Amino acid sequence: MLRKITLLVSFLLILGACGSANKAKKSVSEGNYNKAFDIAYTELSKDKNKKSNQKLIPTLKEAYNKAYDRDVIKIKQLKKGNNPANLKKIYATYVAMDIRQDDVLSLQPLYYNGKQVEFKTEDYTGKIAEALKNYSDYLYNTGTQQLAGSKLDARKAYKTFNDLEYVNPNYTNNLANLIAQAKKKGSSFVYMKLQNNTGQTIDPKKVSDLLYVNEANMQNQWVIYNQQKDQSTHYDYEVTVGLDQIQISPERVNTETVPQQARIKDGWEYVYDANGNVAKDSLGNDIKRDKIITVRAEVRIFQQTKSGRIDGGVAIKNLNSNSQMTSTPIFGEAGFENVFAQYRGDQRAIEEKYVQALQNKEVPFPPDDEFVKYALDNFKNKMLQLLDQQSF
Question: How far apart are the first and last CA of the chain?
Fold first, then answer.
C-alpha cells in the first residue's frame, strides 16, 4: 500500500512538472517571456536538480534571452522618442532586467544533459543609476514648475514630489519641505469656530473635541481644518458651529403591571369511572393522566429613561467671495434606558419575554454631563457628514 501511495505521489509530481514545462513553452510561443521565465524560475528555485525540472532549463534560457532582446529594443525606442515621460519606463525596464539577471545568477550553476548552461550577464549599476537620475531630474523639474502654478497645479506637484520621494528619497535635502509646500498651497483652509448661544458654559475640552476634524477620515484630502487661527495662513472658508439650546430631560421611572396566567402540567392524577372507582385499561392497569392547573403571577415592569438634546447648526462661508454657502440646522441627541422587572405569584406563569427584565436591576441615572458629551458626539457626526459633502 505504501509503495502505491509513493508511486502516486511521484506520478503527480511528474505530472505537475510537465504541466509547468508546457505552460512555460506556451508562454514563450505567445511572446509572454516574463511569464515563461517566472514559471521556469519558480520551479527550478524549489529544486534545480530534480530530473523533472531539468526540462525547464532550456525554456528558462530561451525566455531570458528573448526578454533581454525585447527590453534592449524597447529602451532604444524609448530613448529615440526623446519624450521625458518615457524616463520612468526606461528606469523601470533596467530595474526589471537587473532583477531577472539576479534570479538567474541565484540558480547558478545550471546543468542540462551534463553541460553547464551559460547566461549572458552585464553590470546594470551604471545604467540604472543614470536612468534613475534622469527620471528624478524630470520629476524634480516638473514638480517645481507645477508648484509655481495654481492651487490645482500644486496638487499635481504634491503627487510628483511624492513619486520622487518613493523612487529616490535622497535626491535632494529639501524634498520633504517641497512636499509640505505643495500640500499647503494645494489645500483649501477652513477655520472652525464655535458660537455658543446656550447660555451655559461648555467645557473647553468638549469644545476642542467638537471642532477638531481629522482630515484622514474625510473624503477630500485637500481640505485642512483649523480651530486655532494662524495669522500666516490664508483661510478660504469659515465654518461657524452654533449651539443654541441644551435640553436634559428629568429622570423618569415608568411602571406597568402585567397580569400573568398559564395552564401548566403539575404531576398526574388517576382517572375515575362513573362509579367513582379508578378506571382500568384493557390490561387491568390504573389509568393516569397529566394534572393541569392554572397558575397566576403579576409582573411589574420598570422603565428608567432620561435623554439629552443639543440644537444648533452649521454655517459655511466662502471667505474668498465673502458669500454664505450654506446654513444647516443640526441637532445631537443622547438617550438612556434601563428596563427591569419584579414579580409576585407563581413564577411558572411568567412569559419568556419578561425573563431578561426580571434578571436586570435598577441602575443609577447617568449625570447630565454625560448626556451633553454624547449629544455633542452625535452632533459632531452629523456635522462631519455635512462638511464631507461640501466642495471646498
Answer: 74
The CA distance from 65 to 72, in Å, is 11
Contact indicator for 379, 332 with CB cutoff of 8 Å:
yes
Pick from 122, 149, 174: which residue ends a domain? 122
Say whether both 85 and 193 belong to one domain: no
Q: Tell me: do 260 and 364 sit in the same domain.
A: yes
Range of the domain at 161: 131-186
pTM comes to: 0.72
Residue 297, φ and ψ in degrees, nearest 5: -155, 175
Distance of CA 129 to the CA centre of its chain: 37
- pLDDT digits over 351-367, tens only? 999 999 999 999 999 99
Residues of the chain with pLDDT under 50: 2, 4-16
Do 226 and 167 belong to one domain?
A: no
Distance of CA 389 to the CA centre of its chain: 21
Closest CA to 366 of 313, 307, 291: 307
